[in-house]
Amino acid sequence: MKPGCAAYLRNPRVLATLLLVFVCGVAAGVLVMHLAGHRLHNPKSLAWKEGGKQVTLERLKKELDLTPEQAAELEKVLDDFFTYYHTLQAQMDEVRATGKDRILRLLNERQRQKFEQMLAEFQQR
């Protein structure tokens, strides 16, 4: 950091602005993941739960008239996609939790309760 940067970080307005930007980022992340989660849990989507993978593959094979080679490659692609998606999901969960913990450490007890209430209200929407 430059020598003058520390002074900016002690300024309450700068801290409040950074906190607001961070909270908005967390809120946007929660919203995007919430919307993406609905799409991924929709039975009509390409997402699957236990046992649904084979049904999805069979449907795609039939509707797209895939060759056995294409079906095998598609299965690999979908497996890779879900591995990648779940890895990213775990990373996002960790980022959100770390951010929330850092915010909570900045707040007093009354502010923490209000912040938790705000998050709960946002997640209910």
Keyword list:
about 120 residues; 5 helices
Please provide a written account of the structure.
By secondary structure, the chain is mostly helical. The protein has one domain. Helices cover 82% and strands 0% of the residues. The protein has helices at 5-10, 12-40, 52-64, 68-106, 109-124. The longest helix is centred in the C-terminal third of the chain and has 39 residues, at 68-106. The protein is elongated.
SSE string, helices as H and strands as E: HHHHH
Number of E-type strands: 0
| Largest pleated sheet | none
Structural class: mainly alpha
Task: Tell me briefly what this model is.
By secondary structure, the protein is mostly helical.
Give the helices and strands, then pairings.
Blueprint: H1 5-10, H2 12-40, H3 52-64, H4 68-106, H5 109-124
